[in-house]
């Protein structure tokens, strides 16, 4: 479709069928009908590609891109490069969106004449939901130096705006500044790194506190389980982010939050990664590998920071365990945390 108001890009790889169908159908059911839907099959070895083709036969607005597996960043880029809409929206293949998301955000973006529209998010667990909290003012137009403050909020873990999804982005802003996802980072903190470059060029934005985006917690996803390769991708992301910050005009504001943000990664890598009960390695191997992880220069530096703003008491306790190498306690906390998530 040419001249669509919004291009919705959905990267897909090994998404369980019930989640994928709900995602695609939620996009197809948008009250704003002048959209194009780009389903990117990132070389998924299951039925995902066939399911995409099935929906494309039902709706002419859908275009399916089948490609060799290249990771989340590569899939998002493949969709973006084919997009023709005035606005760009990313929706992950296992999530879903409210029917009026596109219409409401499009109208707001056009009315306020901004480059970016952000919205609320609901995180869905098996037995409960959690509405994200934000530090942003609803319907306020952020412009000029306020966009630099927004950029710093990307590094605030509790700011909840460092994702590629839950946003409506001006395609012109992305094209004019050649802002693509870094495919070398593949997956990890790729959304944060992408957003830092996006917000560096951003001149105007608005936030609407309506939870249009439904993020589905999947305990089998890469981010919620132990994957040593992915731990390395995350570290590479943060190394690139630090280099970006060191050369940024907004360095002072960004640097104050960088190590704080990395603390969350270090804690998650312990509890949901190495010491996650789903990691079948021996306790000795878990301990040895995580100890090696803690010796990485960027990790050692982050552990020295005194900025613990926003960390919950539970996270502060885990951080204390990490600093004093109380690995047996981390192993126990991994079991406790998994139980907590399964019973949410």
Automatic annotation (TrEMBL):
Domain of life of the native organism: Bacteria
Glycosyltransferase 2-like domain boundaries: 7-137
Cited CDD domains: Glyco_tranf_GTA_type
Transferase in keyword set: yes
InterPro entries associated with the record: Glyco_trans_2-like, Nucleotide-diphossugar_trans
Keyword Glycosyltransferase: yes
Gene3D superfamilies registered for this protein in UniProt: Spore Coat Polysaccharide Biosynthesis Protein SpsA, Chain A
One GO molecular-function entry: glycosyltransferase activity
Alphabetically ordered keywords of this record: Glycosyltransferase, Transferase
Protein name in the entry: Glycosyl transferase
Organism: Acetivibrio clariflavus (strain DSM 19732 / NBRC 101661 / EBR45) (Clostridium clariflavum)
